[in-house]
Every structure is written in C-alpha cells, then in structure tokens.
Amino acid sequence: MVVPNHSAVTRRRLLGAGAAVSASLIAGCIGGEGPAGGDRLHFTQEQSREEQFDPVVSNDAYSFQVIQLVFDGLYEYGEGLELQPKLAAGEPTVERDGTRYIFELEEGATFHNGDEVTAGDVAHSFTAPVEEETENASEYDMIESTEVIDDYQLQVDLGEDPYGPFELATMGVTVVPESVRTDDREAFNTDPVGSGPFEFADLQENEYVDLERNDDYWDDLEPNIPEVRFVAHDDDAGRVSDIRAENTDVIAGVPNEDWDVLEDESGVSLYSAESPTFMYMAFNCNEGPTTNPEVRRAIAHSFSISDFIESNAANVTSPMYSPVPPVVNEVWGFPQDEYQEMLPDYDPDEAQSLLDEHAPDDFTPTIITPEGIRAQLAERIATRLDEIGYGADVQVLDFATLVDTYTSGSADDYQMYLLGWTGGPDPDYYLYPLFHESQAGVNQGHYYAGSDGFHAAIAEGRNSAGQEERYDIYEPVIREIVDQLPVLPAFTQDNTMAARDYVQGLQAHPEVTRNPTLVADYTNVSLE
C-alpha cells in the first residue's frame, strides 16, 4: 500500500519464521515497575489508532499492534518474514497444482471464552473480509471456496490458477471465533475475543487500551508481563521527552535527529529492524522529457542518495537498490550487489552531459512529494540539478492532493514524484501494484510500458506456484526496472523503539504490526 508517512501505514498480515529459542531461557526475573506502577508495561505508539480491533475489519497498523497480542494467526511471523505455524499443526498439504490447500489445526487451542478453535472459525476468517466487503478483501479474494472437513481440517480452494503470495502472506490469516463475532459485530470490534496470550481489559477511546495476560493460554508460552497499556503520542518530541522522563516504558518511532540523544541517555536502550518498505522516486514515463530513459538516468546521476541518507536519515533508514526491500530479499536472494552496480552513481558531469543532449534547454522538472524526509530528498535533487544549470520545482502536497495528482500521468502536473510502499515477504507486493499495467492510474502514475513481456511476466509470477519458478520469472523484471529506471529506489525505513533498561527481552520486528512482540518462541519480555 502507498505510504503517506512511514508511521501512518495500514497493516499487512504477513508471515515469518524465527529462531526456535525457548522462552523459558529468556524469561529472566520479573517484578520491575513501569510508570503506572506494578507490572504493567506502558507502550507509547507513534500514531493514534482507529480503534478497530476486529481483524476482519481493521486495516490500521496501530490497532493491529494491539490485535496481534489478543489473537493468534493460522501462521505467524517469527523473527523475520518467513512462515511458521501457530494455530496450524504444521505445513499445509498442497494439491491440484498449487490451487488447493488442506490445513490441519492444533487440537486444544481455545479462545478466551473457553470455546475451542475449529476449522469453521478459520474458514470464516478467510472468507468474511470478502463477503463483508471490508478493506481487507483484496488479501483474500483469490479464495474460491472453503470446505470444513472436520473440526480440525479445512480445505481452501483457489481459482483456476495458483496465487503466488498465498503461502508467504495469505495463510497468515488472524483467526476469529465465528459465533461470537457474528452474534454482535459492533461489540466485537471494540471488545474482541481472541485466542492469543493477552485479553482485552479496558478501552478508553482515543486515550488508552489495556490488555491483561491470558492465564489460560492454550500454547506452552506464558507471558511474563501481566498487563499492557497502549497509548498514542504522534508528536516526536513528546515521545522522546516521555521516555527520557520515565513517563513510559517503551516508545515506538525514534526520530533520526534524536537517535544520538537517546543512545547517550542513561537507562535507555534503542532497538531497530529494517522494514519491508520501499521509498522511491518515480518518473513520468507517460509523457514529457522523462519518457526518455537517458533523461531519467541523467537525473539519477545528478545526486547521491547515499550522501542524502548519511546526512538526513542514517539512523533510521538503509539504501535500496531495487524495488524489493532488503529484508524481503533475505527470503528471496535476488542479486542486490549486481543491481547496485547497475544504478547510476553520483556523476554531475555525466548528468549535465546527458541532459544537454536529451532534455529541452529550459528543462525544469516539477517534483511532487509529501512533507517530511521525501520533501527533503526532493529539495536535495533540485539543488543538485541547479548546480548543473537545470534546477527543479518542488511542490510539497498534502497526501490527498498528491494522490489525485500523481495518478494523472500528466506532464503538466509533474515529471517526478516521491512516494513509499509497504508490503510483505513476496515480490508481488511491490511488482504488481507498482509496475503492472492494470494498476496504472490506481497505485502508480509513472505509466511504464516496459519491454515485450514485462507486464505478462509480473502477472505470471503472481499466478505461479513455487518460489524457485517465481524467482526465475521475477529476476528479469527487477533487472529491467533497475536498468530502465521508471522508478529510482531510494531507501527502506526501519522500525525503531526506545525502552527503559528494565524492559528486558524486547526486539524490534521488521513488520510494524508485530511491535511489540511480547511473547514468542524467541523472546518473552519482562520488567526486571
């Protein structure tokens, strides 16, 4: 999905596998006191929540940070972006050339009300988003039908073709109790019943959410922390002041400019993980001078993205060399080093030479951008172009205006735009919405025609099963994007947290909705 601001993203339900470290080995001592006293963990989120806690409906990352502690998934993340079973008893049986999946459930898993988790609940969790036309429908609309074989076996049939991301993403469905949810959906949305390690205790809308430990949790894992309070503080300076003054135990979203301050702060520890985000500058490939790849290449030569990151965001971002974020590439292994070599390096003389040859004499491109770090990058590009005799007109737009503008494809509106995208552990999340021709004017405004077979390959990758086969389909597509530069990869952002030192076992997760992970097979957070 398009990211107007990294801390204001909608959620993706993704999967991951991590190291199988016994939580009991990491438990440590318990009994520290947070700002509220007792054993409650006080977690300050970087953005306000929409206060929707029904996983079928919720499409808000910050509500989902609460949801992921209350509900279990059929499969869930471990420490990274690979698959591990949770309510599923193991890997699914795959039949019919990758279009049929048979899941077997753990027996004895229970919801907070004592009801057992059944295949019917899982089926409802898969189909309800589409049947109810929620914002999450597109994540499940490849499912043609479900069949409950018995209480612990579910068959899921896709359409005629496989859906490539199914095993890396869709199977991570968060499981809800069908009977409780459908009895009163409105009540369920603000007082949900899950099967997870924590239960809903109290909600004061726009103030706080309180969770308490589920002492009858079906899994072997037992959370060290008895209570959690979520509050939201979207002012960066305010969050930093709170953690320094011990008014909270943990804050999410450490600003780049405050990283060094908190790093030197006694009693505070910092945590960071690369996220599956793709920040980029796109060129108008529909009309105007930037339809010429040599003009695009010239602009890429005119500035140094690595220098920009070093001076503006070194603590909270990492450079990117393709449309697949590095943390996703850990799952797939595309040749990032080769892509880095293919990208134009900083060479103002070459930039000027190419523009003199291929661009109009009065070339002053319009760059549209949201505010924040991308506006800073746009200004840096304009400055560097000005140094070689061209310049650029930077227009900082509110996000609604930006969306209406960049999807036009009109050279009267822009030649470049800066945006971001967050997805999951599958290349399809980036290649299909940002480059397939069907998404032109929807999720993209660059209108890149591509070589013969470019768009067909993206569609083929989506409708193929097997990671090796899909790798061979996607690699030439990624290579063409890096070579032809319909978009220039910029950087990926990190998920960051700062915590008081008495918070033990905390880790930053690549997927923003998994923060904070308080209990898993690789950690069990405690207040010591």
Write structural notes for this entry.
Pfam families: SBP_bac_5. With 528 residues, the protein is an alpha+beta fold. 29% of the residues lie in helices and 21% in strands. It has two domains: 23-267 and 501-527, Periplasmic binding protein-like II (D-Maltodextrin-Binding Protein, domain 2, 3-Layer(aba) Sandwich); 277-493, Dipeptide-binding Protein, Domain 3 (Dipeptide-binding Protein, domain 3). It contains 17 helices and 22 strands. Strands 1, 8, 9, 10, 11, 12, 13, 14, 15, 16, 17 and 18 form a twelve-stranded mixed β-sheet that branches. Strands 4-5-7-6 form a four-stranded antiparallel β-sheet, covered by helices on one side. A two-stranded antiparallel sheet has the order 2-3. A hairpin with a 5-residue loop joins strand 2 and strand 3 (83-85). The longest helix is centred in the C-terminal third of the chain and has 18 residues, at 467-484. It starts with 22 loop residues before the first helix and ends with a strand.
